[in-house]
Design a protein that fits this description.
This protein is an alpha+beta fold and about 300 residues long. It has five helices and 15 strands. It has one domain: Endonuclease/exonuclease/phosphatase (Deoxyribonuclease I, Chain A), CATH 3.60.10.
Length: about 300
């Protein structure tokens, strides 16, 4: 019994150290003059056909005020969202509660990487500040052997997953920025690897054309993984992210960040990423924390 007790004490101590280590990070400050703040946030889908229970519509009514508060606290110019979906089986997206709520309460923002659901998968929008950016192009590709076929299943036949992207120009300067918004398979390592290989292939022409390129989203992989190495091999760098970005909808910060931002060296990073680990209400807004990072763009 004493041996078991010692083991339990040891496990508790290790867990406590992990919680402490993964709960620390950089404090959020105002962005520097001329900086562009880019954020990423997996906001968890709504089960639109479920009135009660976690992630149902009643839970959404509790989540939406904390989400709106965190959106404003981010003070971002661009935010790539994942799982912004009111799921009711199928791919129909006419009633996207989260996107509608945030758009209505933030009229200084527009959003892109959306369209009629029959021709554009709209659950990974990119919000951007109207006064700063103009939308030039948008698109998508699925993590699949048929990436240009909408809603095609992943490489191993599991649920569809995809990248959305936007090309924005900065008003007054003409500088262009391509933001690629990704959400990789949480369950399959081979799907994640092949998805990243496809991402690298798709962004290569943009990088070769001299574009500023940012990849933002939920990689479902911690820094230092082989996925990060593939993206770094394509010429991008990762913003340092300290501590957890996924917390089990409990505030349990058990392991390092799985949400990341990578960027081409043509952008100047102005410090490490900041993860907002605030509850901001009676319930957590999502099971992921939002994160932001500041950049300067040359023309």
């Amino acid at each position: 019994m004493s041996t078991i007790a010692l083991v339990l004490i040891g496990v508790s101590a290790i867990g406590g150290c992990q919680l402490l280590r993964n709960s620390q990070g950089t404090s959020l400050t105002l962005p520097a003059a001329g900086a562009v703040r880019i954020g990423s946030w997996n906001v968890h889908y709504i089960l639109a056909e479920n009135e009660s229970g976690t992630w149902g519509t009643q839970h959404w009514e509790q989540r939406k005020l904390p989400m709106a508060r965190l959106f404003k606290l981010m003070n971002a110019d661009i935010i790539a969202f994942q799982e912004m979906e009111s799921f009711s089986s199928g791919n129909e997206d006419a009633n996207n509660l989260t996107r509608t709520w945030l758009a209505e309460n933030n009229p200084d923002f527009d959003f892109a990487a959306v369209g009629p659901w029959q021709s554009f998968p709209s659950t990974q929008p990119v919000f951007f500040r109207r006064s700063v950016f103009t939308l030039e192009k948008q698109g998508w590709f699925f993590f699949s052997t048929t990436p240009d076929k909408i809603y095609s299943h992943t490489f191993n036949g599991s649920y569809p997953a995809f990248a959305s992207w936007v090309q924005l120009s900065i008003k007054g300067t003409g500088a262009r920025l391509r933001v690629v918004n990704v959400h990789l398979d949480y369950a399959s390592r081979s799907n994640r690897k092949q998805s990243v290989e496809l991402i690298v292939a798709r962004i290569k022409p943009w990088i070769e054309a001299g574009e500023h390129v940012v990849i933002a989203g939920d990689l479902n992989a911690r820094h230092g993984s082989s996925l990060h190495a593939l993206i770094e091999g394509a010429g991008l760098q990762f913003v340092p992210v300290h501590g957890s970005t996924y917390h089990f909808n409990r505030g349990f910060n058990l392991f390092g960040a799985i949400d990341h931002v990578a960027y081409t060296p043509s952008l100047q990073l102005l410090g490490d990423a900041v993860v907002l680990r605030e509850k901001a209400g009676d319930v957590w807004a999502s099971d992921h924390y939002p994160l932001v990072a500041d950049f300067k763009l040359d023309e």
